[in-house]
Amino acid sequence: MALKRTNVYAEDGDLLLIKEAAARLGVSEAEIIREGIHRIALAHRVWDEPFVSDEETFDLGAPVEKDEIREAVTRGHEERERRNRGNAA
């Protein structure tokens, strides 16, 4: 991957969070910033075609309740945080 240099203005509080995350993860601040740029770029990407057409559905086997969704998201978030801290479960 070819990298290009650019200048970005950031708030002091954000820079402090980046510095803390880099130290905690043992990576450079630049790596944290590059990952953030990549994530937000993907989050705002517009696809030429929808991921799922109107005719397609996902069979989850049964209705999914709000509590089940909340628990799954919470579990996924906690697992990702453990990985980010280097404590893979």
The number of distinct helices, counting runs of at least 4 residues, comes to 3
Which blocks of ≥5 consecutive residues have pLDDT under 50?
Answer: none
Taking Cα atoms only, what radius of gyration do you get, to the nearest Å?
18 Å
Largest beta-sheet details: none
Give, in order, the helices and strands: HHH
Number of separate strands: 0
Overall mean pLDDT stands at 89
Give me the secondary-structure category: mainly alpha
- Percent of residues in beta strands: under 5%
Shape: extended
Q: Termini separation (Å)?
A: 30 Å
Helicity level, as a percent range?
Answer: 40-55%
List keywords for this structure.
single chain, about 90 residues, mainly alpha, 3 helices, extended
What does this structure look like?
By secondary structure, the protein is mostly helical. It is built from three helices and no strands. α1 crosses α2. 0% of the residues are buried. The model has no long low-confidence stretch (mean pLDDT 89).
Blueprint of the fold:
Elements: H1 12-25, H2 29-43, H3 66-84
Helix pairs in contact: 1-2
Nutshell version of this structure?
This protein has three helices and no strands.
